[in-house]
Amino acid sequence: MDVFVIEGGRKLAGTLRINGSKNAALPLLAASLLTDEPVTLRDVPDLSDIRNMERLLGELGVEIESHNEEENALSTTRLRVVDQSEFHARYDIVRTMRASICVLGPILAKRGQVRVSMPGGCAIGQRPVDLHLRGLEALGAIITLEGGDIVAKSPHSGRLIGDTVFLGGPFGSTVLGTANVMSAATLAQGTTIIECAACEPEIVDLANMLIAMGAQITGAGSPRIIIEGVETLGGVDHVVIPDRIEAGTFMCAAAITNSTLTLTNCPLDAMMSATDRLEAIGVHVDPTNQRSTLDPLRQTCTISTSGKLKPVQITTQPHPGFPTDLQAQFMALLCLADGNSVVTEKIFPERFLHVAELTRMGSSIHKHGTTAVISGVKQLTGAPVMASDLRASAGLVLAALASQGTTVINRVYHIDRGYERLEDRLASVGASIRRMNEKETTPIGFMTE
Ligand code: EPU
After folding, report:
1. How many domains does the chain have?
2. Which domain holds residue 304?
3. Atom of ligand 1 nearest to the CA of 49
4. pTM across the whole model
């Protein structure tokens, strides 16, 4: 198993390009199941979650070819359904990646039936899929649970039937549930109205691609999405939006090391809650272009600090509120703020696994239920720590960049799920970070389970 070895205390300087978004790309890849024509996706990041989704699509009859056509050109992923006979997403793959649930709506809508292994919980909580199922049932699907699999069939094995679907749950809407129901409704008979739809930019990107394929969708990005079903969808050539969570992580990297970094291809307009909190902390995010003349989702900006980090309050919320996927990274930053900060998690109440590891690095964090009070300290210290989930691990990398001494982060496969070559990119702007094999790091050592 690989580890990261990070020597803290280096300043960063230079430019990083923000890659295509993992959470946009996963449902976009799954949407290729909705058409018999070729789908081309550009700027799909090279991540283990993406490779797992491609493996799953391969098993479901999709031929996939990925390559970089020229140096510095966007990567290209070409997908084409060549066999529609398979409709079972097996446990072997689903258990490696919860986002496999993205294929549920597209296969049901196109092939009339689907069997997807029920995803289990994960490090950040229980993560039910009841809203996905409720949404598809509202479109007429008959759903049963058989041997741990969700089995769904269209009424009379024909098309789904449009209806009004309410996707609100105890924590607001559901992002992938909205993606599933919206994708399925594109091929349903009649009109579907999704109330309490997720408003995340990744949903807007999916809607834009589906519209380019011939779907009739209005309202994506608002809590009410209206879909007029069509009989077939065509092929498309689509560029994935940049990753707002990767951008927020690099912004925190500049801030925690008191450095100046430039980010290109940065989706600033999708990041207002994060940049608002950064400004409150004392971190400046300055777009370097005329915003109005450029694509607002692909900006260049410079991140700089004015020295002292100020404490703030943060509450995670559905978009456009503060994203839960940046909670751990901001908590790492607030460990070094001058005073007490309060972070409340409202999307995944158990998403605090980074707290114990940050504490091992010298931070002072007190958790009460879904709220953590972070009392800023002057200095963090390097330590051997354990990555537990993707974003928690990113928080540990940030803390390590600012720590005195060496940090060894174990289980970096969590990071590889969502950040492409993170170590090379941070090293390119001056960080001291190396990927090593666990066995090579005996001087520091680990606690085993
Ligand atoms: N929920 C239900 N029932 C459902 C679905 C969700 O109660 O049927 C609850 C969840 O338990 C959670 C809340 O609703 O409390 C929101 O969950 P949501 O369904 O929106 O999450 P998701 O769609 O499974 C996506 C991202 C996550 C991100 C969340 C929230 C992808 C592949 N995953 O998950 O990303 O945290 O939205 O924004 O898009 C990550 O990238 O690290 C990550 C975990």
Report:
1. 2
2. 2-18+242-444
3. 32
4. 0.96
